[in-house]
Each structure stands twice: as C-alpha cells, then as structure tokens.
Amino acid sequence: MPARRERILDETLALMSTRGARGTSMRAVAAATGLNVATLYHYFPSKRDLLQAAIAHRRVADLRPTPFPEGLAGSVEERLGALLDHLFVGMTDDEELWRTLLAEAIHGDDDVLQPLIETADAFELALGAWVRELCPDAPALHDPAVVRAIRNAVIGVLVEHLPQPEGRRAALEARARELGFVFARVTGIEEEQ
Q1: Contact of 168 with 139, CB cutoff 8 Å
Q2: pTM, rounded to two decimals
Q3: In this predicted structure, what is the pLDDT of residue 7?
Q4: What CATH class is the domain 2-54?
C-alpha cells in the first residue's frame, strides 16, 4: 500500500498549501483522498504524525541524489550559480506550500517547526554533496561552514522573493549568479584557477 500512503501525503501537502497546517484536518484529508478517517489513523496515529510525514515526504522529493546527472561545465562560479538557480526554480514551484510552512513555523507551530528544521538540515547535507560533486576542483566550497552559509543564503533568497512574484524569475537568476560569484571569490577559488 505504498501508493495509498503516498497519495495521502500528496493530498495533505496540497491541503496544507491552501489551508495551512491548522486548517488541514484528518477529515479534510480523508475527504480529499476518498478514504475514511479510520484508514488515515491506520497509517498515521495522529494529525501531527501525518503533517510531519507529509513535510518529510516533500523533503525526500526535493533532495534527489544529484540535480544534474551529467554534471555541469564552466567555471566554479558558473557551476555554483547554475546549481543555485536550479534550486530557486524548484523551491518556487511549491510557492504556496513553502509560504504557508514558513509562516506557520515563524508563528511557532510545533507540528511544522521541527520538520522544517529537519528539512533545512537534510537540505544542507544534500547541498554539500551536490557542491562536492559539481565542484570537485573547489575544496574550499566543501567546508561545512561554507555549505551552511550557502544554505542560509538560499533560504534567505527564498524568503525574500516568495512575496514578490513580479519579475521573480529574472531576480532569482541574477541572485544565483551573484551568489556563485560571491562564494567563489570569498573562498578564493577563482584566484586559484
């Protein structure tokens, strides 16, 4: 029954993006999936478990082993910029969900806050792996503190641009290039090449 569980999680995420975590009830999820509430409780003992599983499900979908199966060409700055641009595009695809989750986490909703912290940690690990894979010639970028700074910059850009849909694509593309430039320069990578 993995397909049923996945359908429940997908419907939960869809409801969360429009109603928020507080407005996503077990009854609403049951109605959206065509299941009865007892079936949901079979898979998830509580609403909290359901919400946390849904956020973890989204995290798994976003953190694929490699965003570019063939790798990338160009300088370290260009490769890092392309990776960041790819991440920005993916994050804005789920704009309503991220907007809702961030707002609820800021307001202290524990059902959302802890899974978002875990998502940020998992993202940092995935980002480190992606940077090592795409920029093996830039060991300074592999430092955990640098990876964390890149992660924080990505999250900051997401928060900055979610409320601004006008011209967002061009702005995100420019931010990706800017961050690629900054991190390549700050770590002294471009000077080494």
Answers
A1: no
A2: 0.78
A3: 92
A4: mainly alpha
